[in-house]
Design goal:
single chain, alpha/beta, 5-stranded parallel β-sheet, 38% helix, elongated, binds manganese (II) ion
């Protein structure tokens, strides 16, 4: 992307081990050596997307407070992984945990996997105490009402590393949102409800700022683009996508492709100028632009920008966050819309798409660049990339503003290839089967108030999103293979009370 994106290759998780001075120097040295070995082992795991750095032993209130304060003030630190090798009296943790502003995971592991049945003595017992040390620590986290992820199992266990990796992705996504800028170009599609929301609440809750820009300012960036740059980008289009002859250089409709390329270059420069990581457009406000940005939006999403159509800034920020979360994983992430259904008795399916703006990161095949009329917006025919989306497991996620809080809704789905070609459909499209089944999924989503603008990701999982929701302190409704409408409705009722009461019972207020 560009200079708006923080350098993420240097991100770290700090490994902090709980203990106490009671055991003497020699034991503490052993605790440190073992901790380093665990940190190095986790570091070598492919599941964990950031560096794990053993930082210190928390053996006193002072040392714990110091490392928490340092974590808060270190930009590269996205969170803490805490484990108690020995007993670590948890009153010592109150001061540090009270000021810690970064997320943390509680890794409930043990240095040695197996009990040395024939050899075990009291020295061994005094060193390997995480079984009860971590419970003392857990009590304090619960007593302080602190949100954290508890991961249980031996640190060399693949599933443990995977779960820690999922949480690390959530922490990474969270980190990327802090101080981030979302540009709302134009305002909201008139009268639409779910794309609206409280921007002040969103900034307090998620850390990103949403600011409006007149489309005229974008238009001036587009007008400033030089013809040679347009030539170069058109050549890239021709090499990366399939184009019919009339759209090629010298063709009768090539000018539409040039207009689209100019919009892409202008939009890129505009976002760079604003230091933005995500943006929205609206077809109702395009003064000064020849086309609704189509291929421009698609390619910017492909480069990692977040996007939401019709002013949908919550979705734009979520697209960006989910792209950061999964940037090293196979599979892509896109803005999406539940568009049309296939309600055949043999299996109900959803056709997802949008007017233009589907990210090519989820494309099955080489996209074709096409220019077709758009029924709304009153502008010239926009260029867009058309493709099918590859089959496989995916999630649809959305965040809505309920007035007193935000709710995330996640539905696990299976993307399938279209049963038949759709040669007359001039937009990129995904076909999916929702879990546990279409009726349960749609009813649960609708009862939850889920948006018609989900983020479709083939790389993110519901566990990563649950971890993100927990870090952000928001509600998450999961519609997975086990979900039932009755269960979801019950959760919604319980959550309504819980999130109302939670503010009052939270230790930190
Ligand atoms: Mn839409």
């Amino acid at each position: 992307m560009d200079n708006s994106v923080k350098n993420r290759s240097s991100l770290e998780l700090w490994f902090v081990t709980g203990s106490q001075c009671l055991y003497g120097e020699e034991t503490l040295k052993q605790v440190a050596d073992n901790s380093k070995e665990i940190a190095e082992g986790l570091n070598a795991s492919d599941y964990i997307p950031v560096k794990i750095v053993f930082k210190c032993i928390g053996e006193s209130p002072e040392s714990i407070r110091e490392v928490c304060s340092l974590a808060n003030n270190t930009e590269a630190c996205i969170g803490l992984v805490i484990w108690c090798h020995t007993f670590s009296p948890a009153k010592m943790w109150i001061g540090g945990l009270s000021i810690l502003s970064k997320p943390f995971a509680h890794l409930h592991t043990q240095f040695n996997r197996d009990l040395p049945w024939g050899e075990i003595d009291m020295d061994y017992m005094n060193l390997h105490q995480s079984a009860h040390g971590d419970r003392e620590f857990g009590f304090m986290c619960s007593r302080m009402r602190l949100e954290r992820k508890v991961i249980v199992g031996h640190w060399q266990d693949e599933e443990v590393q995977q779960r820690l990796g999922n949480w690390a992705r959530a922490a990474k996504g969270w980190h990327a949102l802090q101080g981030a800028n979302v540009c709302r170009i134009g305002d909201n599609m008139r009268e639409v409800a779910v794309t609206e929301g409280d921007k002040v609440a969103a900034e307090s809750r998620f850390g990103y700022s949403v600011n409006g820009y007149g489309v005229g300012e974008l238009a001036s960036f587009v007008n400033d683009v030089r013809d040679e740059e347009v030539d170069e980008l058109c050549a890239i289009y021709q090499s990366e996508y399939t184009l019919e002859p009339s759209l090629l250089k010298g063709g009768s409709r090539h000018e539409s492709v040039r207009d689209a390329a100019r919009i892409e270059l202008g939009l890129r420069n505009f976002l760079k100028d604003k230091g933005a990581i995500a943006f929205t457009t609206t077809f109702e406000d395009l003064v000064g632009l020849k086309q609704l940005p189509g291929i421009a939006v698609q390619r910017l999403m492909g480069d990692g920008y977040g996007f939401g159509a019709e002013g949908d800034w919550k979705t734009a920020a979520l697209v960006y966050m989910m792209k950061v979360m999964t940037e090293d994983l196979h599979g892509g992430t896109s803005f999406m819309e539940d568009y049309t259904y296939h309600l055949h008795p043999s299996g109900n399916k959803v056709l997802g798409s949008h007017m233009l703006e589907v990210c090519p990161s989820i494309a099955e095949t080489k996209p074709s660049l096409e220019v077709h009329p758009l029924g709304i917006g009153g502008k010239e025919d926009p260029a867009r990339l058309v493709f099918d989306v590859s089959a496989g497991d995916a999630v649809n996620a959305t965040i809505v503003d309920l007035g007193n809080r935000f709710r995330m809704i996640v539905n696990e789905v299976e993307i399938v290839l279209p049963e038949n070609p759709m040669p007359k459909l001039p937009v990129a499209r995904a076909v999916w089967k929702a879990k546990p089944d279409f009726k349960t999924s749609a009813a649960s989503w609708i009862y939850s108030g889920g948006s018609h603008h989900p983020v479709l990701s083939k790389a993110a999982t519901s566990e990563m999103l649950q971890d993100f929701a927990d870090i952000a302190g928001i509600e998450m409704v999961l519609i997975d293979g086990e979900a039932s409408v009755a269960g979801v409705r019950k959760d919604l009722r319980v959550n309504e009370v819980y999130y109302h009461m939670n503010r009052g019972s939270s230790f930190a207020g």
